[in-house]
Amino acid sequence: MKQVHVVAGVIRDARGRVLLARRTEGRDLAGLWEFPGGKVEPGESAEAALVRELREELGIEARVDAALIRVPQRYPDKRLLLDVRHIRFTGTPKGLDGQALAWAPPHTLAGYPMPPADRPVVAALLKPDRYLVTPAPEDDQAWLAALARALARGVRCVQLRAPGLDARRWSRLVAQAVALCREAGVETLLNGDAALAGRVGIGLHLRSAQLHQAGIGEAIAPLKAAGRSIGASCHDVQDLLQAERLGCDFAVLGPLLQTRTHPGAAGIGWDAFAAMRERVSLPVHAIGGLVSDDIGIARAHGAQGIAAIRGLWDAGGAAE
Ligand SMILES: Nc1nc2c([nH]c(=O)n2[C@H]2C[C@H](O)[C@@H](COP(=O)(O)OP(=O)(O)OP(=O)(O)O)O2)c(=O)[nH]1
Ligand SMILES: [Mg+2]
Question: Which residues bind 8-oxo-dGTP (predicted)?
Answer without folding.
Answer: 23, 34-37
